[in-house]
Amino acid sequence: MNQKIDFTTVSSRILNVFILVLVCSCSGLFDGTDVRNRAIASQKMNIEQRIHHYSLDSSTVLFKVNTSNLLYARTSKNNGFFAQLLLEIKVIDIHSGDQIFLDSTLYTDNEQSNDANLLFGQVNIPLKSNTNFELRCRYTDINRNQEEIFKSRIIKTEKTVGNSTLLLLPNGLPLISRVNEGVGNYSFETNSTEEVNIYRYSQPFNLPAPPSERGRNTIDNIVFEKVASSKFLTLNDDNSGLYKIGNSNNLSEHFTFLHRPKGFPVPNDYYELNLATNYFQSAEELQALLANENQREAFEKFWIEKCGSKEKAKNTMQSYYDRMELANLHFTSYTDGWKTDRGMVFMIMGPPTRVFNQGDSEIWVYGRDNNVNNLNFAFEKIYSDKIGIYYQLQRHNGYRQVWSIAVNTWRAGRVFRF
C-alpha cells in the first residue's frame, strides 16, 4: 500500500471570480484598514472535501480551498497579512450515539501571493471497519467568522476500504473535487494490488427544460463504457467526459469525476457559445445557428442582429457569458455547470438575492425579504449511484409568465435582471 500523501500550500492559476451568491452570513473581525481582500467578505469559502479509507482501522478527511476565498488580515501595520482556517471534526457512532472522535486543526497561510493558491489539508481518523458513523466537519474562516459545515454518513466495510481509490494529479496531489481540468498522466492510490477499473460516459446530456415544463431527464438511462483496467490514466482535451474509477465491478461504489478540457470553466468554443443561446431561442432558431459552417461568424452575426449594434452586442454578450462562466465554476457536477438546472436559471435570471437550504433542497430567492412578489426556485438535492450528487429544479407552471418575460428580454438583445 502506498504511503499517505503530505499536503502543502501550492500555487495554481485558478480563475479568481467574485461569487455572487451568499449562503452563509458572517461578521468580520477586522475593520477595512486591516484586511487585504475585503471584497470577499461576503463570499462562500467553497470548501471541497472527500473521505479516503487508507486501511481497515484508519481513514482520512481530505480537503482543499482556494485561498483567494479566505479573508487575509493583520493585527497591526507592522505585521504581515495572514488567513486562518479552523477545521473541527466530530465522529459519532450511529448505533450507540457515542462520540468516538473529536479533533480541531488550525491552518495558517501567510501573505497571500498575486496568484490564487490552493490550501490542501488532511486529518487522519481512527475509523474501524464494520461500523456506521456520522461525520461532522465544520470549517471556519477565523478572520471573518464564517462557517461551512459538512455532514455525511459513512458505512465502512472491508469492501469499501478495498475499493477506496484516489486519483493523483500529475503533480502528485489528489483530486478532491468532482471536476478535473487539465492534461497529463495520472496515477492511483488504492488499497488493492489489482489494476483500477476505468469507466467513461462521453455522450452529451440533454439540456434542461424550462422551469414550467417537465421531462428530458435521461440521467438514469446512461451507460458507462469500460475503457481500461490500469494503474495509470492519461487525460487530455480529446477524452473529456464523466469518469468512474474503482476496484470493484459495482459502479455505484466507484469515485465519479468530470474531466473537462484545459481552460475550463472559461467557455472558449464558438459552437458551445452558440449552443448556450438555447435557453432563449426556439429549437428551429438554434438548429439554424448551429448548422452554420463558420461558428464564429454565426456567433457575431447573431448577437449583432439581436442587439442592433456591435457596442450593445458586446455588453449583452459579456453579461450572458459571464453568467455562463460563473455557472460552470459553481454548478458543475455530472456535466458543465451551465447545462444544469441551476446553471439555466442563473444564466437567464441572474444571481439570486438570497440562497438558503431547506432540508435537502436549495432555495433561491429573487426579490427583497418578505415581499409578496418574491420569486423562489427550489432545487432538490438528488443522490444518484450513477452520477453522484446533483440538484434538480422542482418545476411547475407558475414559472411560465416570469420566465417568458426574462426570455423575451434576452431575445430583444437586453440583459434581464430581476
Features:
alpha+beta, 418 residues, 5-stranded mixed β-sheet, globular
List strands and helices in order, with pairings:
Blueprint: E1 9-11, E2 48-53, E3 59-66, E4 82-93, E5 99-110, E6 117-125, E7 131-141, E8 146-156, H1 158-163, E9 165-168, E10 179-181, E11 184-190, E12 196-201, E13 225-230, E14 232-235, E15 241-246, E16 255-260, H2 270-275, H3 283-290, H4 295-307, H5 310-331, H6 341-349, E17 354-358, E18 361-366, E19 375-384, E20 388-393, H7 400-411
Parallel strand pairs: 10-16
Antiparallel strand pairs: 1-6, 2-3, 3-6, 4-5, 4-7, 7-8, 9-11, 11-14, 12-13, 12-15, 15-16, 17-18, 18-19, 19-20
Helix pairs in contact: 4-5, 5-6
TL;DR of this structure?
This protein has helices spanning 158-163, 270-275, 283-290, 295-307, 310-331, 341-349, 400-411, and strands at residues 9-11, 48-53, 59-66, 82-93, 99-110, 117-125, 131-141, 146-156, 165-168, 179-181, 184-190, 196-201, 225-230, 232-235, 241-246, 255-260, 354-358, 361-366, 375-384, 388-393.
Structure description:
By secondary structure, this protein is an alpha+beta fold. Helix content is 18%, strand content 34%. It contains seven helices and 20 strands. The chain has helices at 158-163, 270-275, 283-290, 295-307, 310-331, 341-349, 400-411; strands spanning 9-11, 48-53, 59-66, 82-93, 99-110, 117-125, 131-141, 146-156, 165-168, 179-181, 184-190, 196-201, 225-230, 232-235, 241-246, 255-260, 354-358, 361-366, 375-384, 388-393. Strands 10-16-15-12-13 form a five-stranded mixed beta sheet, with no helix packed on it. Helix 4 crosses helix 5 (310-331) and helix 5 runs antiparallel to helix 6 (341-349). The longest helix is centred in the C-terminal third of the chain and has 22 residues, at 310-331. The model is unreliable at 1-33 (pLDDT under 50).
